[in-house]
Design a protein that fits this description.
- This protein is an all-alpha fold.
- It is 78% helix and 0% strand.
- It has 8 helices and no strands.
- Helix 1 runs parallel beside helix 6 and helix 4 runs antiparallel to helix 5.
Length: 259
Amino acid sequence: MFGYHFIEFGIGVALAVALIVALETGFRLGRRTARRNKEMRGKEPPSGGQIGAVQGAVLGLLGLLLGFSFAGAASRFLERQDLIMQEANAIGTAYLRADLLDEPHSSQMKDVLREYVRHRLEASKTLAKGLGENIPEEVALLHSRLWTAARDGALAKPSTMVAVLNPVNEVIDFHSTRVYTGKKHLPALVMGLLILCSMMAVGAIGYGCGLSGHRSLPMTLPLVILIAATLWTTIDLDHPRAGLIRLSDAPLEELDFAK
């Protein structure tokens, strides 16, 4: 766990350093341009209005990109959290419907559901490394056992077929939904554009400060940190099993029969 926290901390520091470098680079380029304008007679220095317009345009584009990207990452995070709750509800419903079956099918179905919940909770602890090679096979086996117990019980008591098999279908379907929802991330190209636009915006601010010959760190440095923090939070939200902002498995943990 400490290793993943260290990686997340390193990402945040790397983003902040990259933006600070862009700020300093822009400042030095601005100072060089200002000196060159003084040495060349008859050349007018860039007007503050032009620099301000460029800064405003780049910052506006950055705000738009950050806003959409952050909102998308937050939406995907909440969607994944809602799916955990919905899956827990489906498992709980299937467990209750098992009471409609005759023995030994009822006990078999309940035993598989208990094992299934424990397996999902254990698998969640290792998802920071990705979906393990054995997990799909283990889940498929549990699904097969669950379906077999429910099917045999429903065939032995046909009046329970709809009431029992529908919740079991939902439990199986939620697994596929959660797997493919977990693979939805912000495209690397978009993230690269976000970082590039952030560096250009910060560099434009530094360039304007360089033209004026002075800079105000109490104003520019907090902005750099805020942009870096927003980028880091967007990345962290988009990887809710590996980052510091984690999904909660509380709905599964709170199932009474799984304790």
